[in-house]
Amino acid sequence: GQNIDQPTEMTATEGAIVQINCTYQTSGFNGLFWYQQHAGEAPTFLSYNVLDGLEEKGRFSSFLSRSKGYSYLLLKELQMKDSASYLCAVLDSNYQLIWGAGTKLIIKP
Amino acid sequence: GAVVSQHPSWVICKSGTSVKIECRSLDFQATTMFWYRQFPKQSLMLMATSNEGSKATYEQGVEKDKFLINHASLTLSTLTVTSAHPEDSSFYICSARGTVPQETQYFGPGTRLLVL
């Protein structure tokens, strides 16, 4: 079966750095997405990785290792507005998007 | 770019009525759109994949006669919840598949449905 694992909840301090991990086992791989979803709102696109390595976009970076079936989202200089759920999703060989359950990130002052 | 709108944002209706939700890609053409449902504090659940000009593909357990999907143009897909019941109350979110980056889904703002 297809499976995406990410921690259910994480807590971090304002101004700090947090890394949200995602491991996956899917039938094929055509890319990995990270989305941010604030409570009561729809998800918004953060990043897309299809090749191994680190993609940096401002305070957010996303890393992919295809051989390990592993990705992480790194958030730097955390702000209170970063409190949200972060969803990992993998595009499988049929170009179906397989969603993780999401990681709820709580930022404390 | 890659803006998706959804209308209405809130619906309150009586049990037994039908509700139509529209999803539009505003600045790009989307041959494929997706309809999701999300209950409070739960994950996104894909209901169906909507393909322009053809029948929608429904996920297992989703009643196609209850959730009617029409993708009449490259920028518009509609979801009609027929004979709505209180258990259909949920957050319905559409997304449109874009090409930059490849296969990225861009989400509409969602529609909250409350069936009394």
Strand and helix layout:
The complex is a heterodimer of chains A (109) and B (116).
Chain A: E1 3-5, E2 9-13, E3 18-25, E4 32-37, E5 44-49, E6 53-57, E7 60-65, E8 70-75, E9 84-91, E10 97-99, E11 103-108
Parallel strand pairs in A: 2-11
Antiparallel strand pairs in A: 1-3, 3-8, 4-5, 4-9, 6-7, 7-8, 9-10, 9-11
Chain B: E1 4-7, E2 10-13, E3 19-25, E4 32-38, E5 45-51, E6 57-58, E7 67-73, E8 76-81, E9 90-97, E10 105-107, E11 111-115
Explain the overall architecture.
- The complex is a heterodimer of chains A (109) and B (116).
- By secondary structure, chain A is an all-beta fold.
- Helices cover 0% and strands 57% of the residues of chain A.
- In chain A, strands 2, 4, 5, 9, 10 and 11 form a six-stranded mixed beta sheet that branches.
- The termini of chain A are far apart.
- The relative contact order of chain A is 0.35.
- Chain B is mainly β.
- Helix content of chain B is 0%, strand content 52%.
- Chain B contains no helices and eleven strands.
- Chain B has strands at 4-7, 10-13, 19-25, 32-38, 45-51, 57-58, 67-73, 76-81, 90-97, 105-107, 111-115.
- In chain B, strands 2, 4, 5, 6, 9, 10 and 11 form a seven-stranded mixed beta sheet that branches. Chain B has a four-stranded antiparallel beta sheet with strand order 1-3-8-7, with no helix packed on it.
- In chain B, a hairpin with a 5-residue loop joins strand 5 and strand 6.
- The termini of chain B are far apart.
- Classes of the chains: A mainly beta (109), B mainly beta (116).
Give keywords:
heterodimer, A: 109 residues, mainly beta, six-stranded mixed sheet, five-stranded antiparallel sheet, 57% strand, B: 116 residues, seven-stranded mixed sheet, four-stranded antiparallel sheet, 11 strands, globular
